[in-house]
Amino acid sequence: MVDTKKYHYGLGRRKSATARARLVKGSGLVTINDKPAFEYLSGNKTLLAEVTDPLVLVGKQQEFDITIRVSGGGLSGQVDAIKMAIAKAITVGAPDLRGTLKKAEFLRRDPREKERKKYGLRSARKREQYSKR
């Protein structure tokens, strides 16, 4: 694999979170919004492990330094967006790994969004209690 670019780019979205990932040849450092990933994710090891799942699946966790810009949404939505962005960036650099990532559903966007509140109701679907008499 001969690279003419300096990095591989991927974009991931989940709920209202958007993540942009850059993969550069390196030693496995992950930075999110200019902070180390562990610090950004409030020291949550399970979220950190979830972020690196696509790299672990293809066995390249020590080959790339990852720089991530993420905005919008909550921490969980951001983690899912980051995961998708990393997976897409891997497929740009190595198209032969696309099938593996696709089978593990890292390239599929989760379409669930928060439903809007409707007028006349208390929330999106909650209504006043029905009274027959």
The amount of helix comes to 25-40%
Q: What form results from the Cα inertia axes?
A: elongated
Low-confidence stretches: none
What integer value in Å does the Rg equal? 19 Å
Distance between the termini: 75 Å
Strand order of the largest sheet: 1-2-5-3-4
What average pLDDT do the residues reach?
A: 92
Strand percent estimate? 15-25%
Label the structural class.
Answer: alpha+beta
Helix segment count? Answer: 5
Topology as a string of helices (H) and strands (E): EEEEHHHEHH
State the total count of DSSP E strands. Answer: 5
Characterization of this structure:
It is a single chain. This protein has five helices and five strands, in the order E-E-E-E-H-H-H-E-H-H. It is an alpha+beta fold. Helix 2 (45-51) runs parallel beside helix 4 (75-93). The relative contact order is 0.22.
Comma- or semicolon-separated keywords:
single chain, 133 residues, alpha+beta, five-stranded mixed beta sheet, 5 helices, 32% helix
Short description:
With 133 residues, the chain is α+β, with helices and mostly antiparallel strands. It has helices at 37-40, 45-51, 53-58, 75-93, 98-103; strands at residues 8-14, 17-25, 30-32, 35-36, 64-71. The protein is elongated and about 70 Å long.
